[in-house]
Structure formats: structure tokens, C-alpha cells
Amino acid sequence: MSDLLELPWTEARGQVSPREYADACLRAIEQRDEHVHAFLHVRPSSPASLPIAIKDNIVTTDAPTTCGSQILRDFISPFDATAVARLRAAGAAVAGKTNLDEFAMGSSTEHSAFGPTRNPWDLARVAGGSSGGSAAAVAARMVPAALGSETGGSVRQPAALCGVVGLKPTYGRVSRRGLVAFASSLDQIGVVTKTVRDCAEVFAIIAGHDPHDSTSSTHPVDDYTADLGAGVQGLRFGIVREAVEPLGGEVRANFEAAVDVLRRGGAAIEETSVPTIGMAIAIYYIVANAEASANLARFDGIRYGHRSERARTLDEVYFDSRGEGFGAEVKRRIMLGTFALSSGYYDAYYGRAQRVRAKLRHELAESFRTFDALLTPTTPEPAFRLGEKTDDPLSMYLSDVFTAPANLVGIPAIAVPSGFSAAGLPLSLQLMAPHFAERSLFRTAGFFERETGYWRRAPVL
Amino acid sequence: MNIDRDEARRIAGLAHLEFDDAGLDRMAAEMTKILTYIDQLREVSVDGVEDRDAAATPMRADDVQPSLDRELVARNAPAWRDGFFVVPKVIGGE
Predict the structure, then answer these.
(1) How far apart are CA A169 and CA A414, in angstroms?
(2) pTM above 0.90, yes or no
């Protein structure tokens, strides 16, 4: 039955009972996760038409939610995230909670307080992040699907590095209730799967308005699988010149080959310019950290989470609990965000970043008058080695250079496997579409997947 | 933008974080490097750019909704007694 987990979820679910499916996943986790460390908690097998892994910053009542942080190491939520509740109602069960960079702050899952996740394709390399556990769990065929979360690329970047499909939906398309807040104007729950159809079907379960999240959209939910077989004849795609021009080597060659697949399918492809796209990381690290510094103020040792044993005064409860509970990267980001919002610097940093962000939004809106989707590689390089970037925060940040724009502008984007490097590491194509155009993303990604079939190759563990 | 040890200490105080001097120096150096990268935002012309999205977050009706289960809340509390969170004395301390 080991072949079961090689199949797409949408094929496997009809072939076995929910009990057999859940058991197969649990066995796979028991056999493989000691090498990968995708999971922070594994649930006992529970019959389910969809055994799904949930990133450990999305709250669940039947397993802890640690956010990869010491400050929440014992936290068990009183309620389920809306996305989790919808999955359960559709017959899914939580197979386990997946590893992440602490509070989703990172691009390698090395900033987890509970140790890094390893890339199933090369255990000496990172799985990406921050949803590295979710991407690795799907790539290693331990579960058919996982939820992750995105703030600047945290689903697409690890999906790319692990060779699986990763969707970042339109901002507001999936309820954020129960997603532990990092940067509230950017955060969105996303989906990781082996295939595009699996992704569309899981996404359809969690998409839609939630009265408990007033930023969730009332825009009608689409039929996300309707165009999966439609092909790309007549569609127009833009290649973002500023993103692709500086690239060299195999990432460039792979991207050009991917573009050729779409061109041969009948799509019209042109270069286009998005002049401000190169500012995305600079904007992101002001906006995201400013919002994070406010959101993480709630971790004060009073109502839940770690409280320092040595604290005697109220101030000491705050300072010592946060000092002991937060890791270095989280502190660095809180410091940057606090600085950007502090008196005398607000206009120069936060205000400035928001205006450049608005400029980027106008430029992308202008592009989408012409194009159905914009194309870039998902990441500027394949998976890097564990430890390679941990001493250089800025170089780590730059691995999100192609993914962060979609978060800043709120548009949907998908990462789809586009082949392998000479060293056998996965490479990935990114498609970005206008707000609420997920159906069109699935159409193009579905065509690309059918033509190339890279999802069929699995890592050997 | 250059952040020195005193500025890092001021920000840490605002953020309710504490570092020793070596930690402050390290943080100041890292922030300086990152902010130097971020300073490229100053070179972008934003004349005439509106900085707000047109769509405002809608308000919901202010109706009474079920609250969280108190026992489940107590389970996560670091210190809890008789339905209250216990904290160090706030008024009249040192």
C-alpha cells in the first residue's frame, strides 16, 4: 500500500477506506520523519478521507500549537482555526502539526525552537520556510496535503525547494481566524499538495467568508477545478523583466524552458516591466516587522504562554518572559518593527514603505490589464545548505525576492514544480494572477503540470 | 541608517525586550545592515501615489457572541485562581 501515498489525493481517496488512508499516512510518518523532522506533533491515526498536516501556527483543539516557539511550547487552543474546522467538516483529520520558523519568521525552518526540518531531496539542505514542515511532509509522501501560512512567501518558497505545489490565495480568501498573527495585512493561509488538482480541491474546502474574520472576503467562491483541463491557448503571460534579467545559470535556463512549455501550449508571452518589484523585500521587512512588533506584544506572560519563573514585578514578567520565550530572529524582527514605528522614524520608514507598496500595487494592476498572469521563478536558487544563511539575515531575506510582491499586493500566486537542477534539487515556476483569479492560476498550473509531470518524481529516503 | 548601542537600548525598552551590552551591540550592527538595505526605499519616487487601499474593512453588527470556554482558557494560564489571571502586584510596588 506504499504506492497509495505516491498517488494524488484525488485518486487515492477513492481506492481505500478512510481508516486505511489514515493508517498509511501514520506509518509513513513513523518511517520517514525521523530523517526529515517535518512534524512537531503527530496525532494518532483517525479515519479520514483527507489526513492533512497543519502548520503549527494554525490552532487546533486536539494538538498543541507552538508556533515553533518556546513561548508557546505548551499552548493548546480553546478553539479550532476556521480553516481547520472547515476541513474537519469535509471529512479531514489532523495528521499532525508541522515545523516552522518561529512565528513564521524565516525562510529555512532553521529558526524553529525545536530544530530544523530537512529537505527530503537532500537532508543536508533546508526545506525552505517558514512552512518548511508542511512542504517537506508532502514532498516526502507522509501526507497528501498540508496547510501552511504565507506572509512573504512562506508556502511557495518551501514548496519550491521541496518540489511540490504551493498556493498563496488572494488576501482575505481564506479566514485568518486561528492563524496566529504575524503581519495582519499580509498573512494568509495557503495549501501544499503534490498536484494542482489536489491543491484546487483542498483550497475549495477552506475558501470563503468567515464572520469571525472581518478581513475575509465576501467575494463569491469560484469553481476552482472547472478550468483544470482547459489549456493555455489564447492566454497572455508577462515575464517580469526586472526579476528575470539578473538571473543566471540553471534557474534561468529552467525558467526559459518552463516559459517554452506555455508558449507551445498556445499562450502569448511577452516581457513586461514592473519597475518597483525590486523594492519588495525592503518594503516587506518594514511593513511585516512593524505589524509583527504590534501583534507579538500579546505574548507578555500574563494570559497564556511562557511566564518567567524569576519574574517578581510586572515589568519583569514582560521582559523576562519575552526574553526567555522568543528566539533571536523573532527579537530581531520585533526590534526592527518597533524602530520603524517609533517616534521620529515612522514617516521615514513605515510611511515610506506603505507608499512604495502602493506604487507596486498600481504597477501590478496595470500589468494585469494586459496579462492573465505574470511569470517568474519561485526562488532565485534551489535549496541551500543548512547553516548557509543563518549568520546573514539579509541574504536569508532575499530568498523571498520573487514571492513577497504577491503578499504586499494581496494577489494570489502559485508555485508549481518545473524540473530539477543538475544536483537533483527541485526548481519551481511561479504564476501571479489578479485578485480572486485562483481559478485561472489552477488552469495554467494544471496545464503545465500535465505537460511536464515533474510531480511524479519522489525523493528517496 | 546607523543604529548604535544606546538607540538599540531605547528600542529594546519600547519592545519590552532586554539584551546585555554585547547583545545590544550585535543587534545594533544587524539592524544597521538591514536598515541600510531598506534605505533604498528613499530613492523611489512616490509623488502622487495614494498610500491607502480603497476597500475598507467592513464592520460587523455589535451582537453578543459566545465567549471562549473558561476552563480551556484557564488550562493555558501561567497562574490562575478563582477565575482570575494572577499577576504580580501592580499598584503600590517599589
Answers:
(1) 8
(2) yes
